[in-house]
Amino acid sequence: MIKGFKDFLMRGNVIDLAVAVVIGAAFTAIVTAFTTHLINPIIAVFGGNNVNGLAVQLGNNEKTVMDFGAIITAFINFAIVAAIVYFIFVLPMNKLKERRKRGEEPGPSEPTDVELLKEIRDLLASQRRL
Fold first, then answer.
1. What is the pLDDT of residues 29-64, one digit of tens each?
2. 16 contact partners, CB below 8 Å, separation of at least 6
3. What domain range includes position 99?
4. How far apart are CA 51 and CA 45, in angstroms?
5. Distance between CA 90 and CA 96 in Å, rounded?
6. Distance, CA of 95 to CA of 1 (rounded, Å)
7. CB atoms within 10 A of CB 90
8. Residue 5: in which H helix or E strand, if any?
9. What 8-state DSSP symbol labels residue 91?
């Protein structure tokens, strides 16, 4: 049971996923700072002179603010993190795997059903002659 679990963990896909999660989490802080201090002010410009930028307050309560700028920022944040993880980690790993596969020689091909049936037929014919 432990061996099967170890084999599962050592598969390439699980390791790649773990690396992507860790690296994605590390880049999230950088991208969040970028979007908060650079993208948010640009989005707020389109909101006019309103202090909330692209937000709408539905009532007199502060908790009724619908902040569309924060939603746009979250989408931009996600897109940047996904692009960084893909282009810096996933794409090079796929290229490396492709190079390794090109260097491998194909193993012997499995005989087809027709070839196996012909071999059985020939064996049976040779046994009848004996």
1. 777 787 777 777 777 677 655 555 677 777 777 777
2. 90, 93
3. 2-129
4. 10
5. 10
6. 33
7. 15
8. helix 2-10
9. H
What is the C-alpha separation between 66 and 50, in angstroms, rounded? Answer: 13
DSSP H helices in 35-90 = 40-45, 68-85
Mean pLDDT of 89-93: 81
Tell me the two tokens of residue 83: 């692009």
Residue type, 54: L
pTM summary value? 0.49
**Reported confidence tier of residue 121, pLDDT bands at 50, 70, 90:** very high
The backbone torsions φ and ψ at residue 72, rounded to the nearest 5 degrees and listed phi first, read: -60, -40
In the chain, the number of structural domains is 1
pLDDT tops 70 at residue 92: yes
**Does the pLDDT value for residue 28 go beyond 70?**
yes
Q: Kindly state the tokens that stand for 114.
A: 């027709």
Residues across the chain: 130
Match 């190079």 to its residue by tokens: 99
The domain that holds 103 is classified in CATH as: 1.10.1200.120
